[in-house]
Specification:
The chain is mostly helical and about 190 residues long. The protein is about 50% helix and about 10% strand. It contains eight helices and six strands; from the N terminus they run E-E-E-H-E-H-H-H-E-E-H-H-H-H. The strands form two sheets. It has a three-stranded antiparallel β-sheet with strand order 1-2-3, with no helix packed on it.
């Protein structure tokens, strides 16, 4: 399982995905519409595990809330095809098919807000451990600023309410605590 913070972070990408608020997909700065709840849930399930194969069975469980129909494999293929089409020319190059499932390719942390968030938290925490308070404060502040509202507010899938969303809130709370902790030495001794 690849940690989100292990992506390179300094490349500027023309593609951006956001889960730290309503689902966001942008290409060259323009919004990309992903119509339909099943396609949104499919995209989120892939983005939650970037650069990893997510099995067809796992995806079917997400899309049909643990009760996939007999036609799930065929219907899933159709949803992937339509999701690729929604993403335009980037869809086929980013969503790969494997014998056991599908993978979305994310090239660096700037393309996925949860990866950039996690990366910033780790850099902020490293700054704290090194007593580098300006770095800690800056990185943690930038990471927290990536939040655009309630995670996945427009994606209606119970799976994410039970798994991904509580995890994101837990990580955000930890980042807020570290940010407050990092501000304390600055407030006591001055900048």
């Amino acid at each position: 399982h690849r940690d989100l913070h292990s992506f390179p972070t300094r490349r500027s990408s023309d593609l951006r995905f956001g889960l730290l608020g309503p689902l966001l997909v942008e290409h060259n700065g323009y919004p990309v519409d992903v119509p339909g709840q099943k396609k949104k849930a499919l995209l989120v399930a892939l983005l939650a595990r970037p650069n990893q194969v997510v099995t067809a069975r796992e995806l079917a469980d997400v899309l049909w809330n643990g009760k996939p129909p007999a036609s799930a494999v065929t219907t899933l293929r159709s949803h992937v095809k339509h999701l690729r089409r929604s993403l335009g020319r980037i869809g086929p190059e980013r969503i790969a098919t494997y014998p056991s499932g599908y993978l979305i390719r994310i090239e660096d942390a700037t393309e996925l807000d949860i990866a950039a968030f996690t990366d910033g938290i780790h850099r902020g925490r490293a700054g704290m451990l090194d007593n580098d308070w300006p770095t800690a404060i800056g990185e943690l502040h930038a990471a927290l600023a990536l939040w655009r509202g309630r995670p996945l507010a427009d994606v209606h899938a119970d799976h994410f309410r039970r798994t991904l969303i509580p995890d994101l809130h837990r990580i955000r709370l930890q980042a807020e605590l570290w940010y407050t902790e990092a501000m304390t030495p600055v407030a006591v001794s001055g900048p």
